[in-house]
Write a structure and sequence with these properties.
Largest sheet: 8 strands, mixed
Radius of gyration: 20 Å
Structural class: mainly beta
Number of strands: 10
CATH topology: Immunoglobulin-like
Order of helices and strands: HEEEEEEEEEE
Number of domains: 1
Strand order of the largest sheet: 5-4-9-10-1-2-8-6
Strand content: 35-45%
Amino acid sequence: MAVVVAVAALVAVLVAGSITVPGPCPLPVPPIVLRTVSGSGELVFLTEYSTYSYADGQPQAPASDLRFELAEYHPGDDYLGPGTMILQGPLLSLNQTGDLQFHDMAAEGEFSPGNDFVILLNPPPATVQLRILDPSGNAIAWNMITGCI
């Protein structure tokens, strides 16, 4: 009896259109994924995954060629938009003692997925996105603040 009720409920939901098969995600996935971890008044952006290839097939980009943008989003903002820019500049302008710090762990002068990271101390009480830009201004890395189911 319980099985019949469960099957009938599932059929009713399917007929009502409440369950749909997810389609392709329209959001772009960054060439270099930045994952975020927070705690103790800081937000860490970890370079985790890369399909990026720099000019001439080099796997990493020289950090001296890159720029960064830090944007914030407040409730009601369009998370797919550019947000409000709160800080931007050359990636190497971020030292290891300021509020936003770039750590080149292997000290090879490249932006390397898997071992480099950025720390934001005292992040604002808003959603933030860090974007890393190549010399032509194209974003090559960012933390996804919205996604597909």
